[in-house]
Design a protein that fits this description.
- The longest helix has 37 residues, at 173-209.
- The chain has 8 helices and 7 strands, in the order H-H-H-H-H-H-H-H-E-E-E-E-E-E-E.
- The protein is an alpha+beta fold.
- Helix 1 (5-40) runs antiparallel to helix 6 (121-131) and helix 2 (47-54) crosses helix 5.
- It folds into 2 domains: 5-189, Dbl homology (DH) domain (Dbl Homology Domain, Chain A, Up-down Bundle), CATH 1.20.900; 223-302, Roll (PH-domain like).
Length: 304
């Protein structure tokens, strides 16, 4: 007898989950455990570094190994009398929020591995030694660490496929669709975590270009737009090149540095967005000009 299509997908979910738990075991019980042991002996890197690299991988491993995989196994053994997985996946979905932390930390983790491998040869040797083992299948630690990042999108695809193959009158349809909706929300949650991380990285990059003006380094700031601008001097009817950064709360009026050591710009003026007005001017001599007036000062600027 031909297996129904939806059962094939449910079995694929189980098989990939088994392989995934093995991968998590490798990350948590082998890499993390052994690197931590050496760090505790003070031989390789600070313990904090190892903890930061592996983030909350232990919780993720425990959850999949002790809860989700056994539930799936049980269900697939009983498939003949209970052909559904929607309810099991609904129980899984809320726990997938744990991934937000891991995903958000991923870039930093990879960077730490690189930095400390250069700083600490024993650390690099230990990783290389584990990577040579059969269980690593010739793949690097970084490669294995990518697996949890890709797992939630994988659930989403498998479940979409499963729902497509379900017969219209299947008792699992309602549950499976609800489970997909839940996983979709979690995936969005983890994408939001990634977007937030990128926003903070962009913000940091701007501060470095401005020579790290301390009070600009506020994680709630958002860079909206930046670019070169001409400042019009009404005194002698000339223009000079300046540069603007517009944040959600302030406009930074900067001067490009001639000698770029460290910072690229010097902040000459900041105008609070609160109470700031922008008015277009119809100046025949200087087209595309506008007036920015704020609590701190009024500027006459010309765009390209």
């Amino acid at each position: 007898v031909q297996e129904p299509e939806e059962k094939k997908i449910a079995l694929e979910l189980l098989e990939t989950e088994q392989a995934y738990v093995n991968r998590l075991h490798l990350l948590d019980q082998i890499f993390y455990t052994e690197l931590m042991k050496e760090a505790k002996n003070g031989k390789t890197v600070p313990e904090e570094v190892v903890k930061t690299i592996f983030s909350n991988i232990s919780s993720i491993y425990q959850f999949h190994a002790n809860f989700f995989l056994p539930e799936l196994q049980k269900r697939m053994e009983d498939w003949s009398c209970n052909p559904q997985i929607g309810d099991v996946i609904q129980k899984l979905a809320p726990f997938l929020k744990m991934y937000g932390e891991y995903v958000k930390n991923f870039d930093k983790a990879v960077e730490l591995i690189t930095v400390w491998s250069e700083k600490s040869p024993p650390f690099q040797e230990l990783i290389a030694d584990i990577q040579k083992r059969k269980v690593c299948a010739n793949l690097t630690l970084q490669h294995h660490m990518l697996e949890p990042v890709q797992r939630i999108p994988r659930y989403e695809l498998l479940l979409k496929d499963y729902i497509r193959k379900l017969p219209p009158e299947s008792p699992d349809r309602g549950n499976a669709e609800k489970a997909l909706e839940m996983i979709f929300m979690v995936a969005k949650h983890s994408n939001a975590a990634i977007a937030e991380m990128e926003r903070l990285q962009n913000l940091w990059a701007v501060y470095e270009r401005l020579g790290l003006e301390d009070d600009i380094v506020d994680p709630s700031n958002e860079l909206i737009k930046e670019g070169p601008i001409q400042k019009i001097s009404t005194r002698n009817n000339s223009t000079s090149e300046k540069y603007l950064f517009l944040f959600n709360n302030m406009l930074l009026y900067c001067v490009p540095k001639v000698i770029q050591v460290g910072a690229e710009f010097q902040v000459h003026l900041r105008i609070d967005v609160e109470g700031m007005k922008v008015r277009e001017l119809n100046d025949t001599e200087f087209p595309h000009t506008f007036l920015v007036s704020g609590k701190q000062r009024t500027l006459e600027l010309q765009a390209r």
